[in-house]
Amino acid sequence: MKNIMIRITEWVIAITATLSLSFAVNAETPKNTFIMAKDISDIITLDPAEVFEFTGGEMIANIYDRLMMYEPEDLTTLVGGVAESWDTSSDGKSVTFTIRSGMTFHSGNPVRAEDVVFSLRRVVKLNKTPSFIITQFGWNADNVDQLVVLDGDKAKITITEEFSPALVLNALSAGIASIVDKKEVMAHEVDGDMGYGWLKSNSAGSGAFSLQAWKANELVSLKANPSYRHGTPGVERVIVRHVAEPSAQRLLVEKGDIDLARNLTPDQVEGLTGNTDLKVQSDPKGALMYMAANAADPILGNSKVALALRYLVDYEGMVNSFLKGQYNIHQAAWPSGLWGAYNETPFSLDVGKAKELLAEAGYADGFEISIDTLNASPFPEVAQSIQATLAQAGIKASITTAEGKTLWPMYRARKHQLILARWSPDYTDPHSNLDAFARNPDNRLEAKLTGVLAWRNAWQKDEMNAMVDSARNEGDLDTREKLYHEIQASLQMDSPYVVMFQQTEASVLRKEVKDYVSGSLFDLIFYRNINK
Amino acid sequence: MTLDNKPLDEIGLKAWLLAVAPKSPAQARCQRAYLAWRSFRSNPIGMIGLCIVSGLIIVAVLAPILTSGTGLEPNLGNRLQPFSWDHWFGTDQLGRDIYDRIVWGSRITLYIVGLVSIIVVPIGLAIGTVAGYLGGWVDNFLMRITDIFLAFPRLILALALVAALGSGIENAVLAIALTTWSPYARIARAEVLSIRKAEFILAAQSQGASSARILLRHVVPMCLPSIIVRLTLDMAGIILTAAGLGFLGLGAQPPLPEWGAMISTGRQFLLDQWWVPTVPGIAIFVVSLGFCLLGDGLRDTLDPKASDR
Amino acid sequence: MQLTKTVAARTFASLSSQLRVLSSVAVTLLLTFIGLTSVTFTIGRVMPADPVLAVIGDRAPQAAYDRVYKEMGLDRPIYEQYYRYLGELSRGDLGTSIMTSQPVLEDIKRFFPATLELSTIATLIGVLLGVPMGVLAAVNQGRLLDHFVRIFGLIGYSVPVFWLGMVGLLVFYGKLDWVAGPGRIDVYYDGIVETVTGFILIDAAIAGEWDIFHNAVSHLILPSILLGSFALAYIARMTRSFMLDQLNQEYILTARVKGASETSVIWRHAFRNVLVQLITIVGLTYASLLEGSVLTETVFSWPGIGQYITTSLFNADMNAVLGGTVVVGICFVGINMLSDLLYKTVDPRARS
User: Fold this and answer.
1) Residue in chain B lying closest to A265 (CA)
2) What pTM, to 2 d.p., does this model score?
3) E-strand spans in A249-390?
4) Which residues contact B292 (CB under 8 A, 6 or more apart)?
5) Most CB within 10 Å of its CB: which of A90, A515, B220, C346?
């Protein structure tokens, strides 16, 4: 019997030794391939008429050129993408775009004004979620054929609503203004779906990369477009690998199995500071973290209570600890670093002041309340910190965390009390946020303006609606900026929102990777200059 | 268990417990329990398990004395501290003392364990004994249902149930209970089948006792030992499933110090502050092991024939 | 004449008894299937997560919401939705996943082999190491080795797998560099080998891409050892107790008295008799690994069916959840029934 045992032990040792020797893996990714790890479970489509998710938006930004664009070389100047130049009519109601000559799609087809017209009409007719960005101009499926037209070799658009021309051009730099290859797309049309079924998981663009494969919850693989108008991209392949676990991402980037880790927590980034193979790139983002109080709630509807809440958040404490380096204090509804930003931060943790306000409101002894939030870090941590500071003023808060798909239905049905959530702009004009935060044309429950934050929080102020409209329509840039500052200042003091933080994305890269550009919007991330 | 080799001067309680001819049913019952205990005591594995489980109970009961705080209050200036005299197990990402949280978390573990038992045992017993005792189409019907539940992928069903009921510890417990009762029904039924024709049952029937009375007074007590053994052995699995749900964010809600949730939120610190997820991991391990050992010992004592089934 | 009649009657009796067994199997399968789908279906419909929002995003206007709500047939009564789902299912159509925009069947073809690969190897590890361990423990009952196996088995029961997985990754991938990291294969190898079976190991071997084979193995080692150790714990424990049962039987004594060698007594006599029971246990283990690998898959970023079902569940992608559950459930039931049948055919005592 002893013999058998010894033999087995030998066996086990032998196997372990063989395995450990033979499977030591060589690190380092191929030179011509850029690999990044990211949680990509949010992608549900790659059709630019439908994409409204963070990762999907980032993908189509690298696959499609848009009518108007921000380029990685200068992230703050709006330039023509597929449009070479544009003419705004004197009444500001129509714009005529001249198309860049000599551009081709990945298929080899030339990029024509016809493709531009097709792409915009397609967005309006398919009527998917992000289409509101251009349908707010007054376009709908019935009139878009007359309002977006071919004008010789140019494309002409006409708006029926009152809109600042700057806003129109800015909206046309969003993902829905991606120009798709009409011939290629229509070749895959099924039952008049304008190629919708096919384009979900295929690409027909003119951007720096073409889509090689999208395997949901596994990877997205992009192939360089050698004839891109700015020249061949720096790497031949970009692979975005789905790794949901931040700690797994960290191990992978430390070992050199990936070039870039996107979802590391502040503490993990700090843990990597001594590693000379890696570098950290911090890019300010437009995403805001805010807490909203449902005004339909009898307690929270009291504006003094809402104001008191602003003094019951430990902004400094959080930003200097578990949010360090990835969130900064920002207390206005339009993010810092973008045109129209309002950077005043009047609030800090002040329990005494909050107690005064609560006493004035008739809640000197506090009350009980629930906080709902996402179950992904750092939301639960922020919620727990707020829970503790609320307790100092006698407010007993309970926390419920959930996946977004569970949280949003409740928010959209006004069934929350306090909700801790995130908001990211769709395009770089302040109207993108303030339209949602401040403007609520119909506060009735039956109105179901479920996409509007003000409605979700049952909050309406007529003068605020008027202010947002006039800022939207204002043609003069300086006046417009001043109007937006006024709106934000007013929201800061009187609104259901406690805007707390603005995100800074910390990307951890292998040191040999150069020129990864990540702008303020989720879809201003460019792979084409990357080289290593 | 023989009495020959016992010292002769045993008197009082011990003698009463070991009397050859018990004078009352109560004495007989106490004697049985005592003998079982003596045989259990000689089983080192079971004793270790018993120590761990009673340790858990003591810690849970004495939590307010054993800790200096509730383990719920964040202290952002004191985050991720290593082991020290002030913080025996360090502090977590919000600066809370991990030792305090582990101690208070033992109450949650006990709560889960207790609640699952309270739900599972009656359901399993009721279905199993009724099916076994009544037989016929009732048996067929009930056992079909049991079989269906047995065939379910359990973890996935528990996940789906929690997703439907909403996150939270009660819902997690309910989901676990609903996915674990079926084997108990089977065990109970098997026990009933083996005693259905026993003399004492027939005697009770001939005295005109109702089915309900027979089930409750005679059948259920006979089933209990094997059910308890199985339950104790399953406890590890139940604790691990609850922790797994917590790990996926579906169990206890923050800031509750549920151990699985502590691992889940602490896992990003494994590389730099290894103790944050490791201490709750060890706690889960020790307690599960305790239940396993206890179950093993109990089985040897109460249910020597049913080796491992 | 009389004789043939009896034979015919007997054949008929045995045929009809087999038929009865078969039909009872079919009924159980059908009932289980209906139970499985209806429960999952109901859960999907009462869930607070909203499948419509999974399609259109949280910022969509109400008009878009109402349209998609109708398109998805959610305005119908639940029994009608269920009936419709069964109808489609009977035509082999599992519907389309919201998350992946692919037919659920295609997704399952992609994710299931990953889980199958993992749990098959884990079961193999469990059998190859667990059975000898169990036998040794039984033979050495009460001695050190026996206690070791018992304790080891209990430890295997008690460790939280997600925690051990993280520690394993940190140590063997992060620090020691013995194995490859999370995932099924290094990502730049993806798409090189043609998918034939969906099992990367087999596909790579068919294509003769030994680099990829090697890479896939190094990714597979850690999670499969981890899962395997749980299988091992259970199998060793059960083997031990089955063997103990046998070793206490009279025929073993007879064999010993007759002068059979110890090895022959153990392996030829006792072990042969526990084989059938063992197969049942292995089947059970295999089935439970198939569904129980959710947490392991999460920790190792393993693109398997468990992760698919879980993520779909969180995203209210009910077609995917239903499809995945049905497939796993059928495998689960199938394996259980197979081992049950095997047990009944081989072991006459269990037939009654």
Assistant:
1) B268
2) 0.85
3) 260-261, 278-293, 327-329, 368-374
4) B49, B233, B235, B236, C154, C157, C158
5) B220
